[in-house]
Inverse folding.
């Protein structure tokens, strides 16, 4: 019964279409709730669209947990690259982690990203592409970029599946998620 | 300097070998710190070992965030299946989520898994295989199984890359992570 009355919105990426539910983060603002976790076909379709946007000279991909992991994994797999995942909680095994605050309009309390120190040498002197499934203000991507810089790497491109509004940094995206 | 003095332990899966650092969760107990996040080659090697352990009659995979996601994605991709990811934090868009406590020996405070209600109909009447990268007590897998049962699905197999000790439920694994 629930799904029959729930409004959905069609999202098409390549030849794959999904009718996704709408989420209302604030009264009167509705956004399509895309879902990269668990939908292999959709993730693959998005990866195919994003692959041409990756520069040739990339050594490593980087993202933040959680929902961007499958897309980053597909891109890394297609390009035979490794990737690094910044965590949103400190993990028990982390030693001397890099801690980076996220300035975000959509999150209330300041979120923090954590990166175990052992990843720093993986980033050092590397050309890094930042990957997200959806970008809004771009706050998470800016925090990732600071982590790359602090680790001695260079961000050579930023890519995302969808953008909501206009992030104030240059990000190659495939489609816009409208506010409805 | 750090890495030269850090003890590592060799892990071989198929033809892929990784020298991983050791983590000391309690004084005198050291465990190899395997890392499925970001290592495409290692994840693929483990997926190849696990694929024969999946039954034929599987409709859906299920896991919990975060580190098990790449392995689950690879297995789902190879079998052309979807998967469901239980979350460790409530997400803002969740409506009427299924909440399941995890009984865990290794975690102090009771952890909780969250599953948005919209996934319930994806699980209903389905044959589900539970996937984890590493199992110790098996508490997370038991919590996932309760979520599947509460959603009207059936768990037909449980698979994991590594086991630590002997979980008290039947889980097909590829290798043991020793306590050193």
């Amino acid at each position: 019964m629930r799904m029959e009355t729930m409004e959905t919105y069609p999202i098409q990426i390549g030849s794959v279409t999904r009718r996704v539910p709408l989420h209302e983060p604030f009264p009167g603002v509705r956004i399509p709730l895309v879902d990269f976790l668990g939908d292999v076909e959709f993730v693959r379709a998005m990866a195919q669209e994003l692959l041409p946007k990756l520069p040739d000279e990339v050594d490593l991909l980087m993202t933040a947990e959680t929902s961007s992991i499958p897309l980053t994994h597909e891109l890394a797999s297609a390009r035979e690259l490794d990737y690094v995942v910044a965590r949103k909680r400190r993990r028990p095994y982390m030693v001397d982690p890099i801690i980076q605050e996220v300035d975000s309009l959509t999150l209330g309390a300041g979120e923090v990203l954590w990166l175990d120190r052992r990843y720093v040498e993986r980033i050092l002197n590397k050309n890094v592409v930042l990957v997200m499934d959806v970008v809004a203000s771009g706050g998470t991507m800016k925090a990732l970029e600071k982590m790359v810089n602090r680790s001695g790497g260079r961000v050579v491109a930023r890519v995302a599946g969808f953008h909501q509004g206009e992030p104030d940094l240059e990000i190659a995206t495939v489609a816009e998620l409208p506010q409805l």
In short: The interface with chain B takes residues 2-3, 21, 23, 25, 33, 37-40, 43-44, 65-66, 69-70, 73-74, 76-77, 80-85, 87, 92-93, 117-118, 121 of chain A (CB under 8 Å). Residues 41-176 of chain A form a domain with the Rossmann fold fold (CATH 3.40.50.2020). Residues 139-150 of chain A form the longest helix (12 residues).
